[in-house]
Design brief:
Bound molecules: iron/sulfur cluster
Number of helices: 16
Oligomer: single chain
Largest sheet: 9 strands, mixed
Strand order of the largest sheet: 7-8-6-5-4-3-2-1-9
Structural class: alpha/beta
């Protein structure tokens, strides 16, 4: 079997408390945290062999709140993964944290273990909205964390902000963005809140107006925020992600470019080539207890057919402003977009929502804001095509950009 490189995602399903909008898999009982970490190292080792992965080119430790684990447990995790990855940690190694996790001691230990990127969940600087969202945080704790982080020059910092919490005005949302920019992070993720079913916030706000934007539409606030970021030197490289030049998140790029990724830990999702040579997606069961006791149960296991994989490739690839690399596309699908959805493609090119050249197919900035409409048209036309593969995936790492 030909080996291939993959991104590695580690899901640490523990949080000190549950935020009211969150539907990620996490629990607040840390009793199984040590055994879970030990089992994750075993899963990484076994799956790397089972799925023919040569090497991990990025690691993202998310959750949950991995920053809330003890530095010793993080050390155990990364020490073992380094051995499994033939003694080398990748160039990008991200740890997700909440402000209360940031201290000089933790940062020193994490950096010694190879972590070079911190993704900090701020969400908002305003105490009233932090409380409304049920966050175990405060403006004071956030400012303290940012002060500590500002002393660490060798770390790349990404800040997460949520826009659209219930009751937020346009000014509230833009004030958060301006305050985040004043700390000059390398990267900002500015996400719209979606009220997911089953969360406390969805329950409370299901039948009420969630935003308070009397003078501006959501689209106007979004456009103003994008302008603020661009004027400060940030590039919008994905729908909700902005970075200083060269500081985009390589790990997340692997998702958007549909490169293989292995997810380990309860609730983690993978997209890999399975031992039968087929593209496989699966999720580790959301059950900490059985995982910590040694059972890696999989659910949501599926092997997408060529047309479904192609749709996902478009859906993910067009989120990135540099677009879809046409050389990779041709090598994977053995055809070009013009053969698959010629009418919709010609229409969106004529209306200046899509641009193509020899290298890429991408949305214009106007096109990015109507991505769903574009995708629906592409998919409708694809459904009338007779495309049936073959799908040559994954490409060798030399071809994936
Ligand atoms: S800290 Fe993050 S993962 Fe944990 S409950 Fe809050 S939003 Fe969810």
């Amino acid at each position: 079997m030909k080996l291939y490189d993959a991104a590695l995602y580690i899901h640490i399903p523990f949080c000190t408390s549950k935020c009211d909008y969150c539907d990620f898999y996490s629990i607040t009982d840390y009793a199984y945290s040590k055994d879970t970490v030990l089992e994750i190292t075993k899963q990484v080792e076994n799956d790397k062999i089972t799925y023919g992965i040569d090497r991990f080119h990025s690691i993202y430790i998310g959750g949950g709140t991995p920053g809330s684990l003890s530095p010793e447990l993080i050390h155990t995790l990364l020490n073992r993964i380094k051995v499994i990855n033939r003694g080398v940690l990748p160039e990008e190694l991200t740890l997700e944290c909440n402000p209360v996790n940031i201290s000089h001691n933790n940062l020193k230990s994490w950096q010694n273990d190879g972590i070079n990127r911190i993704s900090l969940g701020i969400q908002t600087f305003q105490d009233s909205f932090l409380q409304l969202a049920g966050r175990n945080s405060s403006r004071k704790k956030i400012l303290r964390a940012l002060e500590v982080l500002s002393c660490k020059k060798a770390l790349s910092i990404s800040l997460d902000l949520i826009q659209g919490l219930p009751g937020m005005t346009a000014e509230d949302q833009l004030a958060d963005l301006k305050e985040a920019l004043s700390f000059h992070p390398d990267h900002i993720s500015w996400y719209s809140l979606s009220l997911e079913k089953g969360t406390v916030l969805e329950d409370q706000w299901a039948n009420r107006h969630s935003l308070n934007l009397p003078e501006r539409t959501e689209e106007q606030v979004w456009a103003e925020g994008c302008q603020l970021l661009e004027r400060a030197g940030y590039i919008r490289y994905e729908v909700s992600n902005f970075s200083l030049p060269t500081m985009s998140c390589n790990h997340n790029r692997a998702y958007w470019e549909m490169r293989p990724y292995l997810g380990c830990g309860p609730g983690a999702v993978s997209m890999i080539r399975n031992p039968e040579g087929r593209i496989e997606r699966h999720r580790v069961a959301q059950d900490v207890k059985s995982y910590a006791e040694g059972s890696v149960l999989l659910d949501n296991r599926e092997m997408p057919d060529p047309i479904d994989f192609l749709k996902d490739y478009l859906l993910m690839g067009l989120r990135v402003t540099s677009g879809i690399d046409l050389n990779s596309f041709r090598r994977i699908f053995s055809c070009v977009p013009e053969e698959l959805f010629p009418l919709a493609l010609a229409r969106f090119k004529r209306d200046k929502f899509i641009e193509t050249d020899k290298i890429s197919l991408k949305t214009t900035s106007a096109g990015l804001d109507m991505l769903n409409t574009i995708l629906i048209s592409f998919f409708d036309e694809l459904d009338t095509s007779d495309y049936a593969g073959p799908v040559n995936w994954p490409l060798s790492s030399a071809v994936c950009s």
